[in-house]
Automatic annotation (TrEMBL):
UniProt GO BP: molybdate ion transport
Lineage: Bacteria, Pseudomonadati, Pseudomonadota, Gammaproteobacteria, Moraxellales
Record organism: Acinetobacter proteolyticus
Protein's name according to its UniProt entry: Putative substrate-binding protein (ABC superfamily, peri-bind)
Highest rank taxon of the organism: Bacteria
InterPro entries: ModA/WtpA
Residues in the signal sequence: 1-24
Amino acid sequence: MKTSPILMIICLAGAGLGSTLTHADTLEVISSGGFYSSMEKLIPIFEKQTGHTVHLSSGSSMGASPTAIPNRLDRGEHFDVVVLAAPELNKLAEKGYVAPDSQRALVNSSIGMAVPKGAPKPDISSAEKFEKVLLNAKHIGYSASASGTHLEKDVFPSFPPVEYKVIAGKAEKVVGDRVAKRIAEGQFDIGFQQISEIKPFTGQYGQVDLVGPIPAPYQKVTVFAAGIGKNSEHEKVAKELIKFVKSPQATQIIEQQGLEQVKQ
């Protein structure tokens, strides 16, 4: 039987397309909340430029939540790229989940305070004013990840015992959800999280307002870093993604989320 010229062209074109597609990889990426919104906006650009596909998952840098990144890796989940607070990433490298020497600092992130949209914004421009806001608040929300751990272990206990008891009695750790979302739902009159995690809930159509970064000496800047999964089958593409995220092309998107790109 003779093969028609048209059928031959279709077959050759299909073979060529299949050959091209074999060069496109699918990356599994997981990011903690501090960098999730930035990554969510950067991925489509990376995909368009490279032809690769990126599946993005979320989880906290630490904590007891089943979705926390360390807990997911402990259960045997695998990711090509992992993004979370740098100290926690180093722990994952020590446990053998992240390839040695693959860690790269991405951004500096500050803790912010949020209130319900339209509510008066308390003055937190100094340590003394910030302390009064904590004492006068009715219900305080804080995250279960890096920012909340700092508040729970370092900030709240720094108050005198009587005041610490007052603050601790009305402060609630939010596990497996965004603090800003709970503020929008009316559960807290003030809340704390990485500024980059509050930002997506602000703006014209948002439901919370960002008051600003908390003041020194209570502020703590967290470095978020990326590492490559030790057993990743797409190491080359994973490196491409990390390089793209650190490039000048990504700077504006990152800064719009309230983060400072690490230039190195």
